[in-house]
Amino acid sequence: MSTLNTRPAETQDEVSGPFAWFRGLPRQGRKAFFGAFGGYALDSYDFQVLPLGLVAIAAYFHLSKGQAGLLTTVTLVVSALGGILAGVLIDKIGRSRTLMLTVATYATFTVLCGFAVNYPMLLACRALQGLGFGGEWAAGAILVAEYASTRYRGRTVAFVQGAWAAGWGLAVIVATTVLDHVHGDLAWRVLFWTGALPGLLLLYLRRSVNDAPRANSRPEKGESTPVTAVFGRGLLRTTLFASLLATGVQGGYYTIATWLPTYLKTERHLTVVGTGSYLFLLITGAFLGYLTGGYLTDWLGRRKAIALFAVLSGGILFAYTHIPAGANQLLLVLGFPLGFCASAIFSGFGSFLAELYPTEVRGTGQGLTYNVGRAVGAFFPTAVGFQAGGNGLGGALVYGAVGYVIALVALLGLPETRGRALD
């Protein structure tokens, strides 16, 4: 067995080279990385099948744009509850066990969406999917953060964050194929049924993934850490501003993720294959953004990196939605930096939130703040949907840029945590 595989967390900073962040992980840390990466990729996949099939779903159930937007909003609102519950479970039963529970939950209800016979049933299944969707990221991010070294934590967790783009890209490929080759109203159902893929990941998580030794300071069996602890003296300010930061960033992002496919098809009049091509470039930018953002969050610091990408994301979104009709080549050009910046802003979140909270409430704090941000930010897509009725999607999408302004304000109330060791 190599010395790298048994290297304790305190000496991982000594490893150097372009892949030092991975080589410095102990053997169990590498297994945790693959488990968290797979869980978040499939989390993304199961989320993205809705916006990619939204045109067909809206036509089948005769939905207004507001009703269609509500399908995303309800998922994200319920994910706040799921994230809070998962955060408590992370601190109580462990990171890896909670990760398995959240993956099983979002996979089950994604599949059930494909059997929906009416809009209320579909809405209910998407809401329940949010229970698993909300908790998976926190469990995986904390699991990997606690294995990673202080020096490389930002980029290590950012590579897990990059799994979102990988799952999104897979969803685009599958959706493009299914919507082109599966007959009529069955196509969107098949998309949801492919959401059973995460079941295979559960076998790996069960057999191979364990919590990091440093996570053993969580409460012993029979003890409890109340959710109110993260609102106590010394943590209240952190919790409020971290929630506001998560609200702004996710409000902007989910506006893009929910409505961009519909915008390209209905207002830019691109075919499904054409939309898939444009989204593929957007997703390529997203994946590279996650990775680049991870390095920048270690080099510049958490706050500066997030602020940089908030400014860039808001500006590019405004430009993207004001390109004249017929200039689709410009959409192609701006699609890459839009995906890059809107995703790179998330690269520092996993490490930043983990470093803001002590071990005994790390799951509760990270799960609550990130998912409260999801819940409040979830109203952005619905607001855009209703606003689009009068101004069109192009004009309404620009309101997503408001979220990035909110994120900049929130950063003023949070400390820089680069270099902070996890207790």
Figure out the total of helices: 19
Extract low-pLDDT stretches.
1-10
Tell how many strands the DSSP assignment holds.
0
Please report which band the strand proportion falls in: under 5%, 5-15%, 15-25%, 25-35%, 35-45% or over 45%: under 5%
The CATH homologous superfamily is called MFS general substrate transporter like domains
What count of domains describes the coordinates?
A: 1
Q: Label the structural class.
A: mainly alpha
CATH topology: Growth Hormone, Chain: A
Describe the protein:
The structure is a single chain. The chain contains 19 helices and no strands. The chain has a single domain, classed as Growth Hormone, Chain: A, CATH 1.20.1250.20. The protein starts with a helix and ends in a 12-residue tail after the last helix. The N terminus is likely disordered. Helix 12 runs antiparallel to helix 19. Helix content is 74%, strand content 0%.
Features of this protein?
423 residues, Growth Hormone, Chain: A, mainly alpha
Brief summary:
The protein is mostly helical and 423 residues long. It has helices at 3-6, 20-23, 27-52, 54-61, 65-93, 95-113, 119-145, 153-161, 163-181, 186-193, 198-208, 236-266, 272-299, 302-320, 328-344, 349-356, 362-377, 379-397, 401-411. Helix 6 (95-113) runs antiparallel to helix 11 (198-208), helix 7 (119-145) runs antiparallel to helix 17 (362-377) and helix 12 packs across helix 18.
